[in-house]
Task: inverse folding
């Protein structure tokens, strides 16, 4: 083999070098779920992982492996199974450094399959994440000498302490014939078999940017490697995931992000992730792309990507054609033994289904005898450095992956994948199954003349059974009553993805016997064609209707529970010992295929249930509640209104601890618990508290363990005049969350704080306008815990809750009367559950305020609700108004378009924004701090203020300031109608280059601006907010002025567009 480089650095050494040169460069973005972990659209914090953090994580894990398992001998395998997260690449690199070869084992393998793999590799050491303790226990019982270790959590690994890495351990260079990592086959042809991937195949991949392409053409793999942030939805025990980790994110330093671990990669979750982290490209299995297209708005969100990559299985043409209309669709293919087969980007995007091979890799299309069909063969070319497969197979001169392709009818260089030469069925999710052994097992039953497994390009395998003539008259159910044990026996010998479920079996007709060769064997392709209609019906199944529940026939709840238990148990049989009625199915390893199987099993029992209902109710008890209504002999059709959902959550979290009985002395000094101090508002709140001489202490409770460092940086960025706030004598930083018992603090810390604090300012809240109310439950329970803390505090702490105008935005819809021109939201809290905006964020703020109101009414605490509207940039302090918010994005886009909207619609043209530094002053003045008198802990009613600007500014005036500012720089912006501005924004290609998106950032939040336009079309009274009481209480509010031109100019200068 030729070589592109004489020295190829081992991955850990490569990481160390990059970390030394650019320690703060971002390697990847890691999704950390905030709030309710079972939500299908969770709030996610995307944490940057730098190269220095990666380097320390590798060193930490290498030392941990040696401590837990002892040092390896250089060739010894260590098995690894875990949820899909960034521990995978760390383990692979750390294992090499500690003298091991990592063996990545699929979590879906059967016990028998895993035992076979361990035996084949002589592997006696197994590392796993906490979620797979049960699986490992089963292996340990069958393998007494198996040494196991549970790997630390992601946060622990990537927060490894600063320190020098030991560059002396492990090899510096990677040899071409040295094992890099061990994967395994799918087990579709029997038991899975280990596949040893050599260093040479990774070297070729890492250096593949140098692979030449014909003049005027480009390589597909280069666009994957060179793109900006990429979302990978593939598992890291799969070869495609390994390629993304090492060929892209490591050796070519292409930033990567993934989905939250421990949950299935559903279309809802992926769209949620795309909205939040905004990658430039993404790689998917085909089945997920089809799900995304079927969700309203899914295609549009894909269109915001520069490119959509897929591979591993065919994609329906209708789906691919839709995607190519909004972005670049890129088809890839390969195998575990070869990595990808390098192909060229098509000249015509309409040819997305076809492959055109790069001539550098020696691919030949060998005719099969069937017109236009060829088998792919890779022929060795001595000295060719790009033939990676021969590093894994050094002793062969050609490699056959047994893949068949159909030639394009008019473009002979293009080839479309059509299947496997060896009968392997490729499912839509990329899983593979060889049906022969399964079919032969079932044909062993005396009633079965023939069996054929189907399922190419479908989500799961199906089965057509040909009865013996004596049983040909039987119905399907009567036939299966006798034959089903044989199918179950075949299932027991098959991996989960290859198993056939009872709802996926059809009977052949005596009028259409299977097509057979003269020797009696079934001709697969001809029989599939003969039964094309029956196969179609098999996969169409019971149609999903618009409802999330329903039932044909009548069941009482006990009967319904039995049916659901049987359905779930039939699908999740492998985790039967852990399958309680409360067990979360996804925490037990359920995936999208099994969700569909549960739905089909319920359908077979007469219960119509959408797959989404299973995702949203992932336990037997939750499904019983969702599909039933608690009444015997009544069809389950109940619908719960949003108002009822809010009422239920308020009721759930208003069972408070009793109030402390100790007498409370008047307070002239204050200790404040500030929950959420590191954001823009939190930073200014902390500053105002420190400036108040009546405040003796501020406890800053944040969820991140580096909050103190972040706070120092925030104060510096905003010029707040306290150089090292982390060392300020009044401040104490604590790591915890209000959702946890004792806020996640030690009992001593909690008790000490509870004896000292007399004011709580609750400022931390996830901002996501697409999430449901349920997804905010973790922070809502935090409000209840704050009430319990305050009620039990020695100084009867007063609670200030930072709410939102979203909690009352439905006010006009429920309070307007004919003839009203203006509706004023009063400075008081109302318990009406119809007032919040129709989205989970506003509903959650209302629920939290209601919990606080109930606590005040019961005399447990004093409370203040602070209803905050749009916060603007600073009025006096430094600090840039976040350039990614809607107004800065509008300004930047307007400058690039040369146009600015003259109006945002009647409901948005009255600007009552408050600068963020002024808002912090207002909020602290609304709280009973520094009043030199006893805190009134039990007012008759909940205090409530609208944190709005009493002085109204017109959008037209601000727009004029923007025009004048840029005119002075030689950039003319003409004033146009909002619809014209939106039309220009819509015309910008959704598949723009990153440079173009940076120029027109409004493209990324076009939906938001469309929403503003829709608000403008709604007729009704103008919404205003009372501020008289607030202005009397707060001198900062009374002194607010309208947002005149000088403030807008300040922000324009700071943005520097």
Result:
């Amino acid at each position: 083999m030729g070589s592109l480089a004489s020295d190829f650095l081992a991955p850990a050494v490569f990481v160390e070098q990059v970390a030394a040169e650019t320690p703060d460069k971002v390697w990847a973005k890691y999704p950390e779920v905030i709030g309710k972990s079972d939500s299908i659209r969770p709030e996610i914090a995307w944490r940057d992982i730098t190269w220095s953090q990666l380097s320390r994580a590798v060193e930490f894990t290498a030392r941990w492996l040696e401590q837990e398992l002892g040092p390896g001998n250089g060739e010894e395998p260590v098995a690894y199974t875990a949820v899909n997260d960034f521990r995978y690449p760390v383990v692979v690199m750390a294992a090499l450094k500690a003298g091991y070869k990592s063996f990545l084992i699929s979590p879906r393998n059967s016990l028998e399959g895993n035992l076979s793999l361990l035996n084949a590799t002589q592997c006696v050491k197994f590392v796993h994440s906490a979620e797979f303790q049960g699986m490992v226990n089963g292996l340990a019982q069958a393998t007494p000498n198996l040494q196991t270790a549970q790997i630390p959590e992601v946060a622990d690994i990537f927060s490894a302490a600063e320190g020098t890495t030991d560059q002396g351990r492990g090899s510096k260079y990677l040899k071409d014939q040295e094992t890099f990592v061990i994967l395994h086959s799918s087990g579709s042809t029997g038991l899975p078999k280990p596949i040893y991937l050599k260093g040479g195949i990774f070297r070729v991949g890492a250096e593949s940017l140098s692979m030449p392409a014909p003049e005027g053409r480009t390589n597909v793999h280069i666009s994957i490697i060179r793109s900006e942030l990429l979302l990978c939805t593939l598992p890291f025990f799969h070869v495609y995931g390994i390629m993304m980790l090492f060929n892209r994110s490591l050796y070519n330093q292409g930033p990567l992000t993934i989905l939250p671990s421990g949950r299935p990669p559903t279309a809802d979750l992926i769209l949620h992730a795309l909205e939040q982290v905004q990658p430039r490209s993404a790689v998917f299995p085909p089945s997920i792309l089809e799900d995304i297209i079927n969700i309203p708005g899914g295609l549009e969100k894909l269109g915001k990507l520069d490119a959509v990559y897929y591979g591993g299985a065919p994609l329906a043409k209708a789906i691919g054609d839709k995607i190519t209309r909004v972005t670049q669709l890129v088809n890839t293919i390969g195998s575990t033994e070869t990595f990808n087969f390098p192909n060229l980007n098509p000249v015509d995007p309409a040819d997305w289904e076809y492959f055109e091979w790069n001539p550098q890799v020696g691919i030949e299309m060998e005719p099969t005898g069937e017109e236009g069909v060829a088998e792919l063969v890779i022929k060795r070319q001595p000295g060719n450095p790009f033939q990676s497969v021969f590093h894994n197979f050094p002793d062969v001169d050609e490699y056959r992956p047994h893949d068949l392709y159909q030639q394009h009818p008019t473009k002979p260089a293009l080839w479309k994948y059509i299947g496997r030469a060896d009968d392997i069925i490729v499912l839509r999710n990329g899983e593979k199954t060889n049906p022969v052994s399964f079919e032969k097992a079932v044909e062993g039953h005396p009633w079965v003349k023939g069996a054929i497994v189907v399922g190419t390009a479908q989500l799961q395998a199906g089965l057509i059974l040909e009865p013996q003539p004596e049983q040909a008259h039987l119905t399907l159910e009567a036939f299966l009553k006798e034959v089903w044990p044989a199918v179950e026996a075949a299932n027991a010998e098959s991996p989960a993805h290859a198993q056939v479920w009872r709802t996926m079996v059809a009977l052949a007709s005596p009028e259409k016997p299977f097509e057979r060769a003269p020797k009696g064997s079934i001709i697969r392709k001809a029989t599939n064609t003969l039964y094309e209609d029956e196969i179609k019906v098999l996969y169409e199944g019971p149609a999903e209707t618009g409802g999330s529940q329903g039932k044909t026939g009548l069941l009482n709840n006990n009967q319904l529970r039995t049916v659901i238990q049987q359905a779930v148990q039939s699908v999740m049989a492998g985790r039967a010992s852990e399958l309680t009625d409360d067990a979360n199915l996804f925490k037990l390893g359920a995936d999208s295929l099994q969700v569909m199987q549960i739905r089909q099993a319920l359908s077979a029992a007469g219960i119509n249930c959408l797959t989404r209902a299973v995702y949203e109710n992932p336990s037997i008890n939750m499904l019983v509640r969702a599909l039933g209504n608690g009444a015997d002999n009544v069809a389950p059709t109940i619908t719960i209104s949003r108002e009822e959902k809010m009422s239920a959550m308020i009721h759930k979290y208003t069972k408070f601890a009793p109030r402390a009985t100790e007498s409370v002395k008047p307070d002239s000094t204050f200790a404040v618990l500030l929950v959420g101090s590191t954001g823009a508002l939190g930073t200014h709140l902390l500053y105002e508290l420190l400036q108040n001489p009546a405040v003796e202490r501020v406890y800053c409770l944040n969820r991140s363990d580096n909050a103190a460092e972040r706070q120092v940086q925030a104060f510096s960025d905003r010029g707040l005049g306290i150089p090292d706030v982390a060392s300020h004598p009044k401040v104490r930083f604590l790591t915890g969350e209000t959702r946890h018992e004792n806020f996640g603090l030690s009992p001593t810390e909690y008790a000490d704080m509870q004896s000292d604090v007399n004011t709580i300012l609750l400022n931390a809240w996830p901002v996501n306008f697409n999430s449901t109310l349920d997804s905010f439950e973790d922070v809502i329970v935090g409000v209840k815990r704050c009430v319990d803390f305050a009620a039990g505090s020695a100084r009867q702490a007063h609670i200030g809750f930072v709410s939102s105008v979203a909690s009352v935005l439905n006010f006009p819809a429920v309070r307007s009367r004919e003839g009203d021109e203006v509706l004023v939201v009063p400075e008081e809290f109302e318990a009406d559950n119809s007032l919040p905006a129709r989205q989970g964020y506003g509903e959650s703020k209302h629920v939290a305020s209601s919990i606080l109101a109930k606590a005040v009414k019961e005399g447990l605490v004093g409370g203040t609700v602070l209803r905050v509207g749009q916060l603007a940039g600073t009025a006096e302090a430094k600090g840039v108004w976040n350039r990614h918010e809607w107004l800065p994005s509008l300004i930047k886009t307007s400058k690039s378009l040369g146009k600015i909207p003259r109006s945002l619609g009647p409901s948005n043209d009255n600007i009552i924004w408050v600068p963020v530094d002024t808002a912090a002053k207002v909020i602290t003045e609304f709280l009973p701090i520094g009043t030199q008198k006893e805190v009134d802990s039990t007012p008759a009613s909940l205090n409530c203020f609208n944190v709005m600007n009493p002085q109204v500014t017109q959008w037209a005036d601000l727009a004029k300031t923007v025009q004048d500012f840029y005119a002075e720089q030689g950039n003319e912006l003409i004033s146009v109608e909002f619809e014209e501005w939106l039309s220009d924004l819509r015309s910008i290609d959704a598949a723009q280059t990153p440079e173009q998106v940076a120029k027109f950032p409004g493209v990324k939040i076009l939906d938001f601006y469309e929403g503003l336009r829709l608000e403008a079309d709604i007729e009704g009274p103008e919404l205003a907010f009372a501020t008289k009481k607030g202005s009397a209480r707060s001198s900062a509010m009374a002194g607010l002025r309208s947002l005149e031109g000088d403030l807008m100019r300040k922000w324009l200068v700071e943005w520097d567009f």
Observations:
- The first strand starts at residue 26 and ends at 34.
- The radius of gyration is 32 Å.
- Residues 1-6, 542-553, 630-639, 932-940 have pLDDT under 50 and may be disordered.
